[in-house]
Amino acid sequence: xxxxxxxxxxxxxxxxxxxxxxxxxxxxxxxxxxxxxxxxxxxxxxxxxxxxxxxxxxxxxxxxxxxxxxxxxxxxxxxxxxxxxxxxxxxxxxxxxxxxxxxxxxxxxxxxxxxxxxxxxxxxxxxxxxxxxxxxxxxxxxxxxxxxxxxxxxxxxxxxxxxxxxxxxxxxxxxxxxxxxxxxxxxxxxxxxxxxxxxxxxxxxxxxxxxxxxxxxxxxxxxxxxxxxxxxxxxxxxxxxxxxxx
Length: 246
Ligand code: SAH
Hints:
By secondary structure, this protein is an alpha/beta fold. The chain has two domains: about 5-115, Tetrapyrrole methylase, N-terminal domain (Cobalt-precorrin-4 Transmethylase, domain 1, 3-Layer(aba) Sandwich); about 115-240, Methyltransferase, Cobalt-precorrin-4 Transmethylase, Domain 2 (2-Layer Sandwich). About 30% of the residues lie in helices and about 25% in strands. The protein has helices spanning about 20-30, 35-40, 60-70, 90-100, 115-125, 145-155, 175-185; strands at about 5-10, 30-35, 50-55, 75-80, 105-110, 125, 130-135, 160-165, 190-195, 205-210, 220-225, 230-235, 235-240. The strands form three sheets. Strands 3-2-4-1-5 form a five-stranded parallel beta sheet, sandwiched between helices. Strands 7-8-11-9-10 form a five-stranded mixed beta sheet, with helices on both faces. Strand 12 (about 230-235) and strand 13 form a beta hairpin. About 40% of the residues are buried. S-adenosyl-L-homocysteine (SAH) binds near residues 14, 80 and 197.
């Protein structure tokens, strides 16, 4: 039996041009691809490759399945969108591994990808050009009170911010609450970028001052970037200067 392996690969934000050659090479060698349905759909089927698409919210089952397959000799690619280490499958795999000491000698590689906030920032200009943080607004894996606390501290700390999973059908009101916190902590002119489906044919980018932002501007295909107090427009671009003055 040949030795199996697992590669946890980031497919980037959507466009084939933003998939790294390293990820393409791992997919070419794989016997099995494991992942959330829309991400597995981005992998071209071919003879000798089994696609295991599963629903959302079953990350740990998926990670355990990948460990089983690799232990049986399969070459497994676990696919994530963007980067696999950003609110994605790499941590889920290590969580499963922690609970499974007999699998800890499996060959595992994490293959980075272009995460949504960086793809979105590049389309808009350079809104993350100074200190910033990334916050997952979903309360699937943490209480919403913790989301609110972190958001408030990040705003008070002067960070630009990127919000992942800003708004879904199952929690339509929380992004509005997040905007309320921003309105308490930031000036009304603060620039907010709504970047939807970046690098796909459906891509849209909208940049408005906080005073004009509304919850309906975001959905689950949107990453929201909030500038810092110095973030500004130059022509059609949005950028954050590299220096901060007292
Ligand atoms: N691992 C992924 C993030 C997974 S969480 C990454 O690194 O990008 C899913 C969230 O990512 C979505 O709700 C959205 O906020 C963001 N996202 C993923 N792809 C996107 C895209 N092409 N355009 C805008 N936002 C995207």
